[in-house]
Amino acid sequence: MRFLVTGSAGFIGFHLCRRLIALGHFVDGLDGMTDYYDPALKRARHGVLAQSNLFRAHEMMLEDMDALTGVVREAQPDIVVHLAAQAGVRYSMEAPRSYVSANLIGTFNLLEALRAAPVQHLLLASTSSVYGANAMPFAEADRTDHPLSFYAATKKATEAMAHSYAHLYALPVTVLRFFTVYGPWGRPDMALFKFTRNILAGEPIDIYNAGQMQRDFTYVDDAVEGMVRLAGLTPAASNDPAGSVAAPYRVVNIAGGAPIELDAYICAIEAATGRRAIRNDLPMPIGEPQSTLANTAELERLTGFRPRTPVDVGVRAFVDWYRDFYAV
Asked: Which among 37, 91, 151, 265 is annotated as catalytic?
C-alpha cells in the first residue's frame, strides 16, 4: 500500500516508516525539520529511511497549504498517518503560538487536502494529556473537556476537527492517544534522553515531586505494532463513541497499560548505564499530571495486541542506542 506519514523525521514517525518499509509498503515521509530539538538527529533518522527505495522524503511545513496539497496529490496515499505536531507540555507555556500554527493550522490544512483527495484511512496522533485530571485508568469514552496544558488543548482541538471531517465528508479517522512513548532514537526533550545524557556525563538530573510520579510508559516498537495493525482496520460509522451522530471515527489508547513510578524508571536507567544518578529534586511543575494509566481494552479488542515490553528492556535498548549513536 501507499502511506503518507507526516512527522517522518520525528521519533515515532521514524520508527513507523521503518516498519512500513520493512513490510514492503511505499512511504512518502513529510517533515518540516523544525529546530525544536536537534536537527542533526532528525536528519539522521531520514538518512536511515532514505537507504530504501520505498521511501521518499518531502521537507516542508504543513502550514504551507499549496505545498501540502501538491505532496498529497503526488503521493496518492491509501493511508495517511498524521504524527507531525509541536509536542511538549512545558514548552507550550513558553511558545504557545507555535502550537496553534503546527497543531491547529497544520492539521486543518491536512484535513482540507484529504477532503480534496480522499483516502481509505487517516490515523491522527493525539496524547494522553487530553484526559487531564480524570479518574484512572483513562478510557476512550471519558470526557476530555478540561485539559491541564495548552498542548493538550490543541490536541483535543485536532480530535474535534477530525471528527467533524469524518462526519461531514465521510473521512475515516482513528485517533491515537499515545502514552509516554520511549525507546531508541527518542526525543532529546523527554526524560529518558535527558536522564541518560546527564547520568553518563556525571551531571545532576532534575526530578520532580521526589520521583513520586507514575507514567504509563509505552515502548516505541509496541506503539508502532498497534499503529500498523490499526491502519488496516478502517472505522465504520457505527464506531462513533458518542453514539448520537454517525461518523467513521474512533479513538484508541496506545499504551503499555501499567503505571511505572518515575523512581523505578530512573533505577532502570542506572542499571543500564552502570552509574548512579545525581538527583536535583524540584517541585511538581504546573500542567503536569501526577499519574497516567490507560485502559487498553479497545486496542486489544480491535487488534488482538497488547503491549508487553518491560521497562527495563526498553530502557536498556535506548541506552545502548544512545551510547552507539553519540559514541559515549
From this structure: 151
